[in-house]
Amino acid sequence: MIKVLYPGSFDPITYGHMNIIEQACNLFDEVVVAIMYNSKKTSMFSVNERISLIEDLYKDNPKVKVVSDTGATIDLALKCGCNAIVRGLRTLSDFEYEIQMSQINKQLSQNKVNTISLFAESNLENVSSSMVKEILSLNKDISNYVPEIVKKAMMQKLMI
Ligand code: ADP
Distance, CA 107 to ligand 1 centroid (Å)? Predict the structure, then answer.
């Protein structure tokens, strides 16, 4: 049984994240979506709100689990018994950061946990949570980037 950890901030989840989750579900037996947070950082959604949006979207998919943590991703991967960390690659700058993180996490886990990079779908490679927040704050439609329940929750936050 291959179980992978998919860490990120997911503030909020977008179709870009969901495409990576879908690719991971096609490859592995269990995908643990991990909301990694730092309580000192400001976010649009609380950790519990982020968890419930993701749980709601995947309520019919038993392969997807959702957890949250403030510590090191590698510790969580080991604690959850994950065989690998999954990350999504959009741009060259993602690649430079991810290669460093993957090497560090491999060393920190004594070669136990590898990182698997999956590529963003070409029409989603410019989608990030921060970009979607910015577009909505300009009163533009975000339906191409996030599912309806996320769009509604974001509009409520901004009282649009
Ligand atoms: P962001 O705030 O940049 O959207 P997160 O920290 O929530 O990012 O991202 C978690 C993981 O998902 C990272 O590996 C990130 O590269 C990946 N990811 C985010 N958006 C996309 C996308 N549109 N396509 C592919 N991977 C993505």
Answer: 23
For residue 25, the one-letter residue type is C
> Rounded to the nearest whole angstrom, what is the distance from the C-alpha of residue 8 to the centroid of ligand 1?
7
pTM greater than 0.85 (yes/no):
yes
Helix H, strand E, coil C: the string for 99-144 is: HHHHHHHHHHCCCCCEEEEEECCHHHCCCCHHHHHHHHHCCCCCCC
> Is the CB of residue 133 below 6 angstroms from any atom belonging to ligand 1?
no
d(CA 34, CA 9): 8
Contact 128 CB / ligand 1 (< 6 Å) = yes
Ligand 1 centre distance from Cα of residue 88 (Å):
6
Give the mean pLDDT per block of 10 residues along the chain (160 residues): 97 98 98 95 96 98 98 97 96 92 96 96 95 96 98 90
